[in-house]
Specification:
1 helix
């Protein structure tokens, strides 16, 4: 019967855990960049829509036109 090397098994488990954490960190960073871009595009679209709505209020001129 082969002896069980608990220390080697623990080292291997820690290395696998570290690899998985690095992989998840990369995935999290990719998602964060994507969400940031989506949020930026959404905010830009909102600003453009609000600008279109408010433009008539600021372009109104109560004075008569001079010919």
């Amino acid at each position: 019967m082969l002896p069980i090397d608990i220390a080697a098994i623990e080292r291997h488990a820690r290395e696998l855990r570290a690899q998985e954490m690095r992989r998840q960190q990369g995935i999290f960073a990719e998602h964060l960049v994507l969400y940031g871009r989506l949020l930026g595009h959404s905010l830009l679209s909102l600003a453009q829509t609000v600008g279109k709505i408010l433009r008539p209020a600021f372009s109104w001129n109560p004075q008569r036109r001079r010919s």
